[in-house]
């Protein structure tokens, strides 16, 4: 029988359930916001501090910045305490200037200089740096922490490097490494993505930005330095140049959330890897994938069936490791009790 969790969820329409946490203790709340195949993941610590991972696209009349600001307001936030920019591509860092017009950003977290240059990348970087100069800046490397109060947020990849030592409780040999087939080396910003493990008590979530195939291998071979996670935000929106089985199957998520768009990400190959993950209970998607066909999750697990809506996938977690995932389109929610010892 599944244990119950209070659904105190950002943007959630679900009715509250019986709480598991201690009286007065707030849950960890995470909202995977629809930015049409980019990333914008809002994390609200039980301490009340906030962390936003990426800001979606620029343009579109401020569409993505408005969606993030609405989620922040719903969560009772008046600012973003930490903005983690995983890498310098339009769908991740492009929304920074528009968001900064709507919400103050206290601390900017990134991997340092970009490796991409030219008219468009340089303009994108200059716009980000102009906003970053107004706040505090943390340049992180693998093993560093994002110091949000109430959570343990560890950097596992950054600037093309990955953890050299396993996180506590991780480090088991990974037998999947022997069957790994490398792809061509990726010289872009994707391979330099800041990857995070977000921990609250026994709950663990993995977000690797757009880290690509060979770097994913480096993180878990010959030993899995990440360990087991409860929730996996699918890498690179479900594009087939990321999400290698060698890492996805090794971290054994109980729930996966795909931040895809209708026509971006959600590839049949990536969906197949997720569906084949040992121990996976559910796949949740921000959008139904046009390319995904029958490999899409059932409709009740999909937040947006087309591009006419902008619903989120929300997660709440207790220190015990129990968590719930909610589709804000229909209020459908699944509860996941803590893993066994």
Walkthrough of the structure:
This protein has 341 residues and is α/β, with parallel strands linked by helices. It has one domain (28-329): Ribonuclease Z/Hydroxyacylglutathione hydrolase-like (Metallo-beta-lactamase, Chain A, 4-Layer Sandwich). The protein has helices at 63-74, 90-93, 96-102, 119-132, 213-220, 245-251, 268-275; strands spanning 28-32, 41-44, 50-53, 80-84, 105-110, 136-139, 145-146, 152-158, 161-162, 172-173, 195-200, 203-207, 223-224, 231-233, 255-258, 282-287, 302-304, 313-317, 323-327, 333-336. The chain has a nine-stranded mixed sheet, with helices on one face. A hairpin with a 5-residue loop joins β2 and β3 (50-53). α1 (63-74) packs across α3.
Instruction: Give the overall pLDDT as a whole number.
Output: 93
Radius of gyration, in Å, reads: 18 Å
Strand numbers in spatial order across the main sheet: 6-5-4-3-2-1-18-19-20
The total of beta strands comes to: 20
Strand content: 15-25%
Q: What share of the residues lie within helices? A: 10-25%
Based on helices, strands and strand pairing, what is the structural class?
alpha/beta
The helix/strand order is EEEHEHHEHEEEEEEEHEEHEHEEEEE
Shape: globular
Architecture in CATH?
4-Layer Sandwich
Domain tally:
1
Number of discrete helical segments: 7
């Amino acid at each position: 029988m599944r244990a119950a969790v209070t659904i105190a969820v950002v943007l959630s329409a679900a009715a509250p359930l019986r709480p598991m946490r201690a009286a007065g203790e707030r849950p960890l709340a995470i909202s995977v916001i629809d930015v049409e195949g980019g990333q914008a993941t809002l994390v609200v610590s039980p301490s009340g501090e906030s962390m936003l991972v990426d800001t979606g696209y620029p343009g579109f009349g401020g569409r993505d910045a408005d969606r993030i600001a609405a989620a922040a307001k719903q969560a009772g936030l008046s600012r973003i305490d930490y903005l983690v920019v995983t890498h310098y591509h339009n769908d991740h860092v492009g929304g920074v200037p528009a968001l900064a017009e709507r919400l103050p950003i206290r601390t900017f977290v990134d991997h340092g200089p970009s490796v991409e240059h030219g008219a468009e990348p340089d303009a994108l970087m200059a716009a980000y740096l102009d906003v970053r100069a107004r706040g505090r800046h943390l340049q992180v490397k693998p093993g560093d922490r994002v110091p949000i109060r109430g959570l343990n947020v560890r950097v596992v990849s950054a600037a093309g490097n990955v953890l050299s030592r396993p996180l506590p409780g991780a480090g088991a040999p990974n037998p999947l490494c022997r069957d790994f087939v490398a792809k061509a080396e990726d010289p872009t910003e994707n391979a330099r993505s800041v990857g995070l493990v977000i921990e609250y008590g026994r709950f663990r979530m993995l977000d690797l930005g757009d880290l690509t195939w060979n770097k994913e291998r480096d993180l878990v071979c010959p030993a899995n330095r990440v360990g087991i996670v409860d929730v996996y935000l699918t890498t690179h929106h479900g594009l087939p140049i990321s999400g290698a089985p060698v890492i996805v199957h090794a971290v054994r998520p109980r729930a996966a959330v795909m931040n895809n768009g209708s026509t971006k990400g959600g590839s049949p190959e990536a969906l197949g890897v997720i569906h084949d993950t040992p121990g996976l209970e559910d796949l949740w998607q921000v959008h139904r994938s046009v390319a995904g066909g029958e490999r899409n999750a059932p409709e009740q697990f999909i937040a947006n069936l087309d591009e006419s809506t902008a619903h989120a996938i929300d997660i709440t977690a207790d220190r015990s490791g129990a968590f719930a995932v909610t589709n804000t389109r229909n209020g459908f929610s699944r509860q996941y009790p803590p893993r066994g010892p």
